[in-house]
Design goal:
The complex is a heterodimer of chains A (312) and B (531). Helix content of chain A is 65%, strand content 1%. Chain A is an all-alpha fold and 312 residues long. Chain A has 2 domains: 222 residues, Fumarate Reductase Cytochrome B subunit (Up-down Bundle), CATH 1.20.950.20; 36 residues, no CATH class. A two-stranded antiparallel ribbon of chain A has the order 1-2. In chain B, helix 18 links the parallel strand 3 and strand 4. Chain B has 2 domains: 193 residues, no CATH class; 315 residues, no CATH class. Chain B has 531 residues and is mostly helical. Classes of the chains: A mainly alpha (312), B mainly alpha (531). The complex binds iron/sulfur cluster (2 copies).
Chain lengths: 312, 531
């Protein structure tokens, strides 16, 4: 039975990786080169970004070297992810609910990294009863308590808001409640496991160690087992839902909103445009293909549908 | 008609689904009357599927029988499938797919939308309303995802859904203010534009002002205004003569000068409606000693490209002709005149549609003008602009291109009483005429622009001039974009705000010329001065 449990763990982990890969690949495959669709302010515009300006504010901009501040992009994205700045600015009521929820998840994700770090320390010879390891254990125990409370509190507050806000209610589907409910339950089980065991950290460390060493030992706590089972499910489920924005926000921000690279500065894009124009479109309106065969975008762009047929 | 509107009502309600109660729309400090909705005629009701609200943009013929109803739905679904293929939609598919898959339904975007605010927060105007209908149809009928109804919500698909969704795509100015606020990066304006594309590119359904009278006319005669190359040259010659007399400076607008540095691309609507704008550009460029020209080649004397509002094929065709004309003349760059959408299409959108070897560099006229004004090449006396001035930010140039400061540098230098509107720069609001509405007046569209879409801009203007409202102080609304001017003119005229408030409106170049010391004073006219 415990082997099956661990197999589910591997499955969830690889499921997450595969689905994340598929999502990203599908985004990349949707178009080898999409149109520019930037939206200002764009943080990498350096000083100009403080007023939302762009390189196009410069005379003869195409003659000048292009400066892109990648660190500003990263800073802006990290700031957004860590503080949910857009929601804070534009939907404060929701922010008070969704921020704890997100913080809870970040804490649990961060907790996993700390547990991995502790295993690394153990592998290089630091004893589990070393003072530093005990400190890490206390941190994890605190993180789980705080993170669990945040997920449960934030999740319940979000459910409450979705049920009672007339505007949100109309856009809320059973899946929204299911997802939020699953996270709340996940948090509750984590808290119960925390409350009923001497050290959550020890359980978590042993579990991760077992996973890494293929040692399929049964887990000591039912609540912890259930907490993990639900965690496995959520890990695989998450990329299939709108919560996949966790992965895709990088693209929606970096590649679309801030994707302002002019063709002048991109040899790759210069090469790609003619290839894009070779795609055949089959739009049926009279001014495109009508009832005829598909046409390449090059043919479409170079035909004038307003010219009488005999002249074209 | 529905008070408590639900998403699924688009597929179930019989007859007109919504009517915006004009008593619910916010009151403004300006003396602006609401414009009552005109009831649809019996003929309209019988023949046209105007079943969304009081406005009707698309005039979709009412299906006569079940077969026609089904045909409409099937064609729509065909179009939707195409919209999600790389071959048919490579320029916009990644943005469309992410907008379909990752919306958290948080409604953070609602408050950002001037239509939502100015309709009295009507449900139909939430930016996500139309996107969510489209999304549900996509998941349920095109992607056919398992458990789609449970996961994404149910949506009935019939001819009413299709017609209403088409109309809904024209209840948006495509200003992308909502997109700016979305924490995920979902773009409801893009979704509206994609729906417009589906209708135009697959069903051949589009507003006649944008298609027949717009892009098709431009491709047929050379300009959506109807001006042929000869007519445009004649008209500009008249403008030169008139404004030589008015300004006291000899103006000559050059056409087709080979190897000039600059091809200036005007919105041809300026020639017809705002000749002073054409004259002011010519005067400034001439006095600054620039090497420049207009083109008399069909399409290239009109920077308009309405394709960008509804159809990718038309967009690409016109943008290509603009580039080819510039190549033919051998100019070093195209400077785009005061037209927001022309700026964005040619500089940003065309940048990855037109092969690089056919491209000519594009620059905003705001930048060129800033260079002239700051260089001291023309002598300016700011005291000639001694009246309060505020600046409207055209969405296409400011939020969508990041050109924010050049126009401000000019105005700060030449207009001592310049003041910003609240929510300016990239946080601006659309004038209300954005995405093609500025040139539409039928079927309550005019009423809609006056009551809802243009209302926020007037509120901002009133706020900017709050200490000097009334007829005593002359005020100038600087709106350097042809379509925005059209929209603002409409509201000023309809409410007689020229005399009630001593407003004048116009572009940036008029304000510059008004300050030029070698020009006769009083280039900008207020109503009280006009014969
Ligand atoms: S578009 Fe963005 S802001 Fe609007 S509801 Fe969706 S996720 Fe929220
Ligand atoms: S694009 Fe502008 S008009 Fe359209 S929904 Fe968004 S904010 Fe409203």
């Amino acid at each position: 039975m415990s082997t099956f449990f661990y197999l589910l763990g591997y499955l969830a982990f690889f499921g997450f990786i595969c689905l994340a890969f598929l999502k990203i690949r599908s985004y990349m495959k949707a178009s080898p080169l999409h149109a520019r669709w930037e939206l200002y302010p764009v943080p990498h515009e350096g000083e100009k970004s403080s007023h939302g300006g762009s390189f196009m504010e410069e005379k003869d901009w195409w003659c000048k070297p292009r400066h892109v501040s990648h660190t500003s992009d990263i800073k802006a994205l990290v700031f957004e992810v860590l503080f949910l700045h857009a929601t804070f600015e534009h939907n404060l009521k929701l922010w008070f609910r969704t921020y704890p929820f997100h913080v809870g998840m970040y804490m649990l994700m961060g907790g996993i990294i700390i547990v991995l770090f502790s295993l690394f320390l153990q592998a290089v010879g630091i004893a589990p009863d070393n003072g530093f390891m005990i400190f890490i254990g206390n941190v994890i125990n605190a993180v789980v308590l705080f993170g669990g409370l945040c997920i449960v509190g934030g999740g319940l507050a979000l459910i409450h808001r979705r049920m009672n806000d007339e505007g949100l209610k109309k856009y809320t589907t059973p899946e929204h409640y299911f997802n939020l409910g699953a996270f709340v339950l996940f948090g509750v089980l984590g808290l119960l496991a925390w409350a009923c065991s001497p050290s959550f950290f020890n359980m978590a460390r042993d579990f991760v160690c077992n996973m890494l060493s293929f040692n399929f030992q049964p887990l000591p706590s039912t609540f912890f087992t259930l907490h993990l089972l639900l965690g496995f499910f959520l890990m695989a489920w998450l990329p299939m839902t709108h919560m996949g924005h966790l992965l895709m926000k990088y693209f929606t921000y970096h590649d679309i909103r801030w994707g302002d690279t002019p063709t002048t500065y991109s040899e790759a894009n210069k090469q790609k445009i003619p290839d894009m124009l070779k795609y055949s479109a089959s739009w049926s309106a009279d001014h495109i293909c009508g009832n005829g065969a598909p046409k390449t975008w090059l043919e479409i762009a170079t035909t004038n549908p307003a010219t009488p047929k005999s002249e074209s | 008609m529905k008070d408590n509107l639900q998403l699924t009502d688009v597929s179930t309600v019989e007859g007109q689904m919504v009517s915006i109660d004009l008593d619910n729309i916010p009151k403004l400090p300006l003396d602006m009357a609401t414009m009552p909705w005109k009831p649809a005629t019996d003929e309209q009701k019988n023949t046209t599927a105007c079943i969304l609200d009081d406005v009707c943009v698309l005039n979709i013929p009412k299906p006569k029988d079940r077969a026609e109803e089904e045909e409409l739905v099937n064609k729509f679904l065909d179009g939707m499938r195409k919209l999600f293929t790389t071959e048919n939609n490579w320029p916009f598919l990644p943005m469309l797919e992410t907008s379909m898959d990752y919306c958290a339904q948080c409604n953070s975007c609602s408050e950002a939308c001037h239509l939502y605010e100015m309709s009295g927060e009507h449900e139909m105007y939430r930016p996500n309303f139309r996107s969510e209908i489209f999304r549900r149809i996509y998941k349920q009928y095109v992607k056919k995802e398992p458990l789609a109804k449970w996961r994404y919500g149910d949506m009935g698909l019939n001819w009413k859904t299709v017609v209403r969704l088409g109309e809904l795509s024209y209840r948006c100015n495509l200003c992308r203010r909502c997109a700016q606020t979305c924490p995920i990066g979902v773009d409801n304006a893009l979704v509206a534009r994609e729906i417009r594309k589906l209708f135009s590119q697959e069903l051949g359904i589009n507003p006649r002002e944008l298609h027949e009278k717009g892009t098709m006319h431009q491709m047929k005669v050379g300009s959506s205004t109807g001006m042929t190359p000869d007519v445009v040259k004649d008209n500009v010659e008249f403008i030169d003569e008139d404004y030589t007399e008015i300004t006291g400076v000899g103006i000559h607008t050059p056409f087709d000068v080979k190897d000039a540095d600059i091809l200036l691309l005007h919105n041809a609507g300026e020639v017809m409606a705002w000749p002073e704008n054409i004259a002011a550009f010519s005067l400034i460029f001439q006095e600054a000693g620039l090497s420049w020209t207009l083109s008399s080649k069909a399409m290239a004397y009109d920077g308009v490209n309405y394709g960008v509002f509804y159809d990718d094929a038309q967009t690409a065709r016109i943008a290509l002709q603009h580039m080819l004309a510039a190549k033919e003349l051998g100019v070093k760059k195209i400077v785009i005149g005061e037209c927001g959408h022309a700026h964005k299409v040619l500089t940003v959108i065309a940048d990855r549609l037109i092969p690089f070897e056919y491209q000519v560099p594009r620059e905003s006229c705001y930048v060129t003008l800033r260079d002239i004004v700051m260089s001291g090449k023309i002598k300016l006396d700011p005291s000639r602009n001694d009246f309060p001035v505020t600046l409207h930010d055209p969405c296409n140039i400011v939020r969508l291109m990041g050109i924010v400061e050049p126009q401000r540098e000019i105005v700060r230098k030449i207009a001592p009483k310049f003041r910003e509107m609240p929510c300016n720069g990239v946080n601006n609001y659309c004038c209300g005429g954005g995405s093609g509405f500025a040139i539409m007046t039928r079927n309550n569209i005019e009423q809609w622009r006056g009551n809802i879409t243009g209302r926020k801009k007037m509120q901002q203007i009133a706020e900017a001039f709050k200490e000097c409202l009334g007829p005593e102080t002359r005020k100038y609304i600087c709106a350097p974009c042809s379509n925005c001017k059209g929209q603002i003119r409409e509201i000023l005229e309809h409410n007689d705000l020229y005399s009630k408030n001593s407003f004048a409106y116009g572009g940036l170049v008029e304000l510059i010329v008004n300050a030029m010391v070698n020009v006769n004073p009083g280039f900008i006219k207020w109503e009280s001065e006009e014969e």
